[in-house]
Amino acid sequence: MAATHTYLTGIQTSGEPHIGNYVGAIKPALAAAESSDTLYFLADYHALNSVKDPAKLRHSIRSVAATWLACGLDPERTVLYRQSSVPEVFELATILSSITSKGLMNRAHAYKAARDRNAAAGNEDLDAGVNMGLFNYPILMAADILIMAADRVPVGRDQVQHIEYTADIAGTFNHLYGESYTFPIPEGVYPEGEASILPGVDGRKMSKSYDNHIPLFLPENKLKKLVRRIPTDSTPVEDPKDPDTSVVFQLLAQFADAERTAAIRKRLEAGGMGWGELKNELFEVLNAELTPLRERYEALMHPDSELDAILAAGAVRARERARGVLSRVRAAVGID
After folding, report:
1. Does residue 3 have a pLDDT over 60?
2. Among 67, 125, 147, 272, which one has the highest count of C-beta atoms within 10 angstroms of its own C-beta?
3. If DSSP states are collapsed to H, E and C, what string results for the chain?
4. Does 27 or 87 have the greater pLDDT score?
5. 82 forms bridges with which residues in the sheet?
């Protein structure tokens, strides 16, 4: 019988989602949830490091939760909760701080990058603009994972160091207190290949920072206008075209079924299909898939929706799990 693993995913509570997030992160995570023990948390305390507008943060928390639910997250199968709803996380973070060396934190990528930016700008204070939330971020992330006794953490490859840090911190705890309690050593689960990375409308990786993204819940009329504005070359309608160099075709291939994609590829390569018609095809497949998601999202964002009740129920389940872990940790360190 295969071993059962517990997967934990932290979701950033900032920014509006785009179709690159949907294809590259949300859909694969939801597929994994069909066959695994999964917990998803909204990282609202992490967001405090960068978001200082309370109204914006409140909206982002609800928006991100509504997004995942609209895209198909089943709150009966997956525990969905706000990080801030589980105070055990923060007590564990304090305990872990007492066994984590400052030198380890000094080597964290985000902290080193902040210092490098100050150095490049000629700022004598290399810690300018660095708050303790940023500095201690890896410890809080470790607490997020370990409080749920998770042993699998799906993340991007830019998060490898955080998983390694969590494993190091868990290993230190186990070495000190292992006779009483041991944490599972978590492993990262990383995306395979580049197939799920969508190009933006300018051909670069789709990203809000490049302003080349297609928002996930864009109204139908605005979605159509945005698709029509995707740059293409001046190849005449009747001339053959290379689908693999077309941003429009690459996007369509992620949303259309295999039969439709193959038929469109054949027409492009043979000549007789223009870029305008291809854009119409892309709009049709996008709109067909995103319209029900958009409607569900808008319903969840209504003040009287079930969204808050879903998050409250998830918090109850998450706290029950966290309390069991923390009680054993407290006993192990002598605070029981």
Report:
1. no
2. 147
3. CCCCCEEEEEECCCCCCEHHHHHHHHHHHHHHHCCCEEEEEECHHHHCCCCCCHHHHHHHHHHHHHHHHHCCCCCCCCEEEEHHHCCHHHHHHHHHHCCCCHHHHHCCHHHHHHHHHHHHCCCCCCCCCCCHHHHCHHHHHHHHHHCCCCCEEECCHHHHHHHHHHHHHHHHHHHHHCCCCCCCCCEEECCCCCCCCCECCCCCECCHHHCCCCECCCCHHHHHHHHHCCCCCCCCCCCCCCHHHCHHHHHHHHHCCHHHHHHHHHHHHHCCCCHHHHHHHHHHHHHHHHHHHHHHHHHHCCCCCCHHHHHHHHHHHHHHHHHHHHHHHHHHHCCC
4. 87
5. 42
